[in-house]
């Protein structure tokens, strides 16, 4: 080390490398080498200040506006507690429509015919009940 007063040491405690061209993090203000300048590389605690991604509510899938300096997790949590329009009671449970012509019933789970592979309601699940056009041998489940 001929010129120890030149440069600065990397602020990452596992590195501490003397860097002659140190880089300053624009979020936390610490000095890092080229290997630790990214927010993820030095686990920047102030990265949320510079993060411009818009978080989306995991329940109602609407974008949540976050003001500069706010922590996205806290804002999304507040949205879920107060403004979220998600209602699990409104979700459709019976979505598997019977393929028998004229039948309007829906089942919670698929009831598949082994011969034709169609999805039917409990009433029309048997091949004779839905005029099955499939092969006379059951479909193998390989």
TrEMBL record:
Domain AN1-type: 4-52, 92-140
SMART domains linked: ZnF_AN1
GO annotations of cellular component type: endoplasmic reticulum
Pfam families per UniProt: zf-AN1, zf-C2H2_ZFAND2
GO MF: zinc ion binding
Origin: domain of life: Eukaryota
Metal-binding among keywords: yes
InterPro entries: AN1-like_Znf, Znf-C2H2_ZFAND2A/B, Znf_AN1
An example Gene Ontology biological process: protein targeting to ER
SUPFAM superfamilies in the cross-refs: AN1-like Zinc finger
Keywords for the protein's UniProt record, in alphabetical order: Metal-binding, Repeat, Zinc, Zinc-finger
This protein's name: ZFN2B protein
Species name: Regulus satrapa (Golden-crowned kinglet)
Upper classification of the organism: Eukaryota, Metazoa, Chordata, Craniata, Vertebrata
């Amino acid at each position: 080390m001929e010129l120890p007063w030149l440069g600065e040491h990397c602020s990452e405690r596992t590195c501490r490398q003397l860097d002659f061209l140190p880089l300053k993090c624009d979020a936390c203000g610490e000095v890092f080498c080229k290997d630790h300048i990214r927010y993820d590389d030095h686990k920047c605690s102030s990265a949320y200040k510079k993060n411009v991604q818009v978080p989306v509510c995991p329940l109602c899938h609407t974008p949540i506006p976050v003001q500069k300096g706010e922590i996205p997790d806290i804002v999304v949590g507040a949205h879920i507690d107060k403004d979220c329009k998600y209602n699990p009671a409104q979700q459709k449970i019976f979505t598997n429509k019977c393929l028998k012509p004229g039948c309007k019933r829906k089942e919670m789970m698929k009831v598949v015919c082994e011969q034709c592979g169609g999805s039917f309601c409990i009433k029309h699940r048997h091949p004779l009940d839905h005029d099955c056009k499939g092969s006379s041998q059951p479909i193998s489940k390989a």
